[in-house]
Amino acid sequence: MRNRLGDRVLHWYTWLIILWLSSPIAVMIVFGFNDKKSKSNTSWQGFTLKWYQQLFAIDGLTEALINSIVIAVVSTILATTLGTLLGLAVGRYRFRGKGLTNFLIFAAISTPELVMGASLLSLFVSANAPRGHITIIIAHTLFSLAFVVVTVRARVVVLDPSLEEAARDLGAGTWETFRLVTLPSIMPGVAAGAMLAFALSIDDYVVTSFVNGSTQTFPLWIIGSVKVGIPAQVNVMGTLIFALGALVAIANSVSSRRRAAR
Predict the structure, then answer these.
(1) What's the pTM?
(2) Which of 2, 16, 122, 208 shows a CA-CA span of 20 to 30 A to 25?
(3) CB-facing half-sphere around the CA of 135: CA atoms within 13 A
C-alpha cells in the first residue's frame, strides 16, 4: 500500500510539473486567438482568426523574425558541423590537450550569458568589427558549439568500433567509412545537437543584446515593445515556432525508433 501510494504521488507530482511548465505555452497559444480591442493583450475579449491572417502586418516584427530565423539556421549549420567533428574527436581519440579541451567545452556551457556577451562585445570592439548579423552569428555559433559537442560525444562513446573496422576490412576508405558507417550511427546525436543549437539561437536575448548593433531579432523586438504593448502577432509567431519545433522533435523521435527497430 505504501509503495502504491508513493507511486501515485510521484505520478501526479510529475503531471503537475509538466502542466506548470506548459502553462506559459498554453497561454501564448490561446491569446493568439484573442480578439483584443486595445493595445493590451492580457485579458480575453473574444475569439478571432484575424491575427493569423494579419501575421505579417507589422513590418518591424516580420523583419525581426526573418533575422532570427536566418541567424538561427546559419549558426546551427556552423555549430553542428564544427561540433560534430569536435565531438567525434574528443569522444573517440586521445590527444595532447584533451583535458583542456573538455574543460573549455564545459566552461562554455556553464559561463553566464552576461559574461559571454560582455566578453564578445569587448572582442568585437577591440577588433573594430561592425556589429550586426555577422557578429550575432559568430556569438550564437560559439555558445551553441559546446552543446553540440557534448551531445555528439555522448553518442560517439557508445559507438561500436567493430563496425568501422569491418567497413575498412571490406575495402572502404576513411571517407567512405565515415559517410556510410560512422555518420549514420551518430546521426541521432547530431540531429539532437542541431535542434538544441537552433532553439538556443532563435530565443537568445542576453548575448544578442550585446553584439547586435542595429540589427533586431525576434526576442529583442518583443522586449522593446513591452512598454507600448505586445501585439497579438507575437503570440501567433511564437505558436508557429513552437509547433514547428514540436513536429521536428516528433519526426526525429519516430525516425530514431524505426532505426532502432531495424
Answers:
(1) 0.84
(2) 208
(3) 25
Domains defined along the chain, listed by start: 2-261 (1.10.3720.10)
Question: Cell numbers of 121, please?
Answer: 562585445
Give the cell for residue 236: 501567433
Residues 6+ positions from 86 with CB-CB distance below 8 Å: 101, 105, 145, 149, 152
Q: Which three cell numbers, joined as nine digits, stand for 258? A: 524505426
pLDDT tens figures, 43-70: 778 888 998 999 898 889 999 999 999 9
How many angstroms separate the CA atoms of 121 and 53, rounded? 39
Residue 161: HSE in the Cβ half-sphere, 13 Å Cα cutoff: 5
One-letter amino acid identity for 130?
A: P
How far is it, in rounded angstroms, from Cα 74 to Cα 133? 10
